Amino acid sequence: MKIRIYTDGGCSGNPGPGAWAYILLQPGGNFQDARFVPETTNNRMELQAVIEALHKVRDNPELGSTEIELFTDSQYVKNGIAEWIHTWIRNGWKTRTKKPVKNQDLWKELLDLSSTLKVRWRWLQGHAGDRYNEACDRLVRETIKQGRV
Fold this sequence. Notes:
Nucleotidyltransferase, domain 5; 4 helices; 41% helix
C-alpha cells in the first residue's frame, strides 16, 4: 500500500502564533489534522507538520509497512532531512559555519521517525495550485486565525 502526505506550517509573524497541518491520503480514506501553537517559528511548524503526520502513520499498525510519498513546500524540511542532516550529525549538530543547528529537537525526532518508515521526500512549489498543498495552507491559516489548540 502507498500513501501520500501533504504538510504545511506557518506563522503570523516569525516568531509568532503559528500552526501546522497535514493531509494523509490513503486507500481506506483520507485524514487531516491541524494544531495551533501560541508562539513559534515558521520552520518549527513546517517540521512539526511532518513529524505529526509520520507519527500518525507509525502509530497506526495497518499503515506500518506502507510506502509514504511526503510532499512539503519547505526546502528547509526537504533538504534538511534528505541532505543536510548527515553532515550536521558528522559535525556534532553544527552547521558549516560551526553554529548549532536550529530546531535540533525536531530534527532528531524527525530522523528517528523517518528511519523506521519508508519515506520518499518530495518538494513542491507552494501556492502553485496543487490541490492538497493549497488545502494544507488553508488549514494552517484557519487554525492560526481561530487560535485553536
